[in-house]
Amino acid sequence: MRRMFRTVVIATLVTACGGTGPRQPQLALPRLVTSVVGQQWYRAKTTCAQGPYEIEVPAAEARWGQGVDLMLATPRKVALHAVLIVDDKEVTSTDAVFDASGRIQGKPDNARCIVDAKERLVLRTAGGNGSGPPGTPAQPGTLVVPPPDRPAPGAGLDLETGGLTGTATLLSFELPELVPGARVPRIRIRFWSIEPNDLQDVHFGVIHVIKHPNVSEEQYVAHLRWKVEEAERSRLRLIEEQRIADEDWRRKHPPRANASAVVTVHVDVEAERAREIEREAARVRREAAEAERALRRKEHCAAHPRDTGCWGAGGLEVHLDLERHRREREQYCATHREDARCWTSEDWSQRRAVWDARARSAVAPPPPPDGPPPAALVEVTPPRLSVHADWRPGYWEWTSGRWVWLAGMWRVPDEDIASEQTTTAPAAPPPVQAEVAPPSPAAAVVWIGGFWQWNSTSWVWIPGSYQLRPEPRVQWRAPEWRPRGRVHVLIPGGWVRIGGGR
Amino acid sequence: MRALITMAVAAQLSGCATAWIATQAFGTQKTLDEGVREVTVPVAGIQERLAVSLPLVVEYAQVAAGSQPSTTPATALPFALSCRTDQRAKDLVYHSAFRYGKRWKWTSGLMVLVEGALAAVMLSSVSEKPGYVVGGGFLAVDALVTTGLFFIPRKEIYRHDEVTAVTPVRSDCPEGMTLAISGEKFAVDASGKIGEVGDAALDAWMSAPSGPLLLEVAGQSRAFEVGYGEQCVWLRDHHRDQPATCTASVALRSLLLSIDVPVGALTGLAVQ
Predict the structure, then answer these.
(1) Which pLDDT score, from 0 to 100, does residue B198 have?
(2) Confidence of residue B14 (pLDDT cuts 50, 70, 90)
(3) HSE-CB of A341 using CA atoms within 13 angstroms
(4) What confidence tens digit (pLDDT) does each residue in B150-190 have?
(5) Distance (Å) from the alpha carbon of B268 to chain A's nearest alpha carbon
(6) Taking the mean position of all CA atoms in its chain, how far away is CA A389?
(7) Is the pLDDT of residue A293 over 70?
(8) What pLDDT, on the 0 to 100 scale, is given for residue A4?
(9) Residue A101 predicted with pLDDT over 90
(10) Do B170 and A350 touch (CB under 8 A)?
(11) Pairing of strands A474-477, A494-497
(12) Proportion of chain B in helix, strand, coil states, percent, rounded to 5
């Protein structure tokens, strides 16, 4: 007995203290985990750019699903519209302003890439003389090209090496699992911006992950099967519980015996038919009597032309006269369709539909672009116009519901002009060439005339172009060459405030 | 003026005869017509006219009635011209009716009875208040005259009048309309706006006018007449943050201009 008691106490202590033997390994719950299979970083080839850029993600045969993330590492705010396309079908998109922390409010930091009141001198785009992209005329600033299907080859990205930190996720998408043997989808990410972004030191990353079980595939499949069966068992259990509950309720609440109501309807078909015939006969009699009365009244009125009861005030004579004027009106209106007094309600509604639509569109906000801008036109930057001038490349401006190319311009600091650190030429330029401005592509742009530029050896004519007025209260002042001793100094054209000043 | 209104109201509300006299005096006998038939025949010769108003003062968004008084300033609306297109012409209106017919007999007969009864009650009242006596006397006289009017013979009327017909057609600013400011043309949209650039140019023009302020539409053009006073109203209202540099004792708050255009130029179906 004592021995048995001692054995029980020892066993209890051993059990309570966790035992002395090795712990059983804890089994991991079967689930899907992700693994990064590809990560690449890119940077734009140009500092100021709108895209569109496109990155193709090499899809994997991932039975359990795969995901794609578009990442952004940026030192400043950039605006981006990004779409993920699977087999030529857009599956998800985003359109916002981002910084390193992710989506934010506000405007992008792209001041040096968009038109500015300090810009001076309009410069032609390269590709003039008809060598531009297909469908683009030689005149800069007038081009309205439908967005292409695919980004143009030049608008590319350079592959970057090395990882980056401080990134934000722009877009995240998970593809459903593939049926074994199914075709691997083509995954593309396209992104662009409506205004050019300042993309210096901005990197775009694409991370491709695939999903797989944390156990062997057989175990995971068995686990899934068990889960399905468990769910089915649970469902059946619930149905059974409900059935028992229903039976219990019915036992406690037996149905009351309802007294059945019997309605006997006796229909005398013959009597009903006779009544119907009588009603029809009465109607015919009534109509005949009315016709007879009308006829008699007509005869009476014809015989009594002064009867105002028949013909109204003035009798038949006035009645006929009014009828004649009514015909006069009809004849007039038949030949004067432009007279609003003759318009029918249909005429009015047709016109109002057109005018109302115009009025609505005038107050409606301008439509956003329905796709990326066309590929940027290739520009050749002309010689620097002053010692400290900065070049703002050309870009596509979305204005009045269309894309308009704004040619690149030099930003010449006021100090350079004041200190005459601009281009100098040995002689005065030739007379200004006569230019015919092409039709304005949009109401918001203004025509900037061309001018002569000295390229150190000869005069080059820089053709005019349409430009966006950077502010409402500025107007363009044309460039001029001023003699300074034996040379001529360029005073660049620029935006000046209406009423003076810059 | 007040006395005149009182008299007119009294004439309409008081006795039947008094009302009849009022219609004769004010030339509104047409209201007594019965069995009216009218045919309007348009007379050839239409004028199509666009009336444009240029506001000189800043307009503000309407605050909904009944809303709580707000401490935030009202929202200034962007500058916009307002346009109205109408067609003007002459109509010949043929009017056939009769007067003093069945409706007149019934009404005047009933009024004689009612006024007579009221007069009898007021005059035979035990109270001899002066108001009762005057009122009763008035109704008695009115009933007496109405009795006479009851017997006016039925009169047939058939006449025609030439009247001016103005048909308002549209109230949006028509397509192709421009406002030329200092020689630069600014398109006017359907809501009358000329865009930010146009607004800035107009403001600069008001400070220092150069050239006419020319409105062009359908091949016609006309300049707004802007005087010193109007300029002053504009500058004072649009630059409230700056000290006033001018005084305008009498000036308009908006400039009006009418342009006659070819018929159909702004109202035709092809116009879009």
Answers:
(1) 86
(2) low
(3) 26
(4) 898 988 889 999 999 999 999 999 999 999 998 888 899 99
(5) 7
(6) 37
(7) yes
(8) 55
(9) no
(10) no
(11) antiparallel
(12) 35, 30, 35
Between CA A161 and CA A173, with CA A167 as vertex, the angle to 5 degrees is 95
Ramachandran quadrant class, A26 (left: phi over 0; alpha: psi -120 to 50; beta: rest): beta
- Is the per-residue pLDDT at A160 higher than 90? no
Cα distances from B37 to residues A291, A311, A322, in angstroms, run 26, 11, 8
Instruction: Give the HSE-up count for residue A123: Cα atoms under 13 Å, Cβ half-sphere.
Output: 26
Under a CB-based contact definition with an 8 Å cutoff, are residues B154 and B32 in contact?
no
Beta bridge partners, A69, equal A172, A207
Is A355–B199 a contact, with Cβ atoms under 8 angstroms apart? no
Residue A497 has pLDDT above 80, yes or no: no
Residues of A in contact with B92 (CB under 8 A): 325
Residue with tokens 């030191």: A201
Judge contact between A191 and A70, C-beta under 8 A.
Answer: yes
Task: Name the residue of chain B whose CA is nearest to A346's CA.
Answer: B269
Complex confidence, ipTM: 0.79
DSSP letters, A11-72, are HHHHHHTT-SSPPPPPPPPP-EEEEEEEEEEEEESSSEE---EEEEE-----TT-EEEEEEE
Q: What residue of B is the nearest CA neighbor of A445? A: B197
Sole residue written with tokens 């009762």? B132
Are A341 and B172 within 8 A, CB to CB?
no
- The answer to whether A69 touches A172, Cβ cutoff 8 Å, is yes
CA dihedral sign, ordered A320, A321, A323, A327? positive
Is pLDDT of B204 > 70? yes
Is the pLDDT at A353 greater than 90? The verdict is yes
Which of A461, A452, A499, A460 minimizes the C-alpha distance to A480? A452
- pLDDT band for A10, please (50, 70, 90 cuts): low
Q: Rounded to whole angstroms, how far apart are CA atoms A351 and A358?
A: 11
Q: In angstroms, what is the C-alpha Rg of chain A?
A: 43
- What mean pLDDT value characterizes chain B? 84
Strand A402-406 to A390-392 pairing:
unpaired
Residue A427 — left, alpha, or beta (φ > 0 → left; ψ -120 to 50 → alpha)?
A: beta
Q: What is the mean pLDDT of residues B226-244?
A: 85
Residue pair A424/A487 in contact by the 8 Å Cβ criterion: yes
Q: What is the pLDDT of residues B41-84, one digit of tens each?
A: 999 899 999 999 999 998 887 765 555 555 566 778 889 999 99
Report residue A80 as tokens: 């981006």
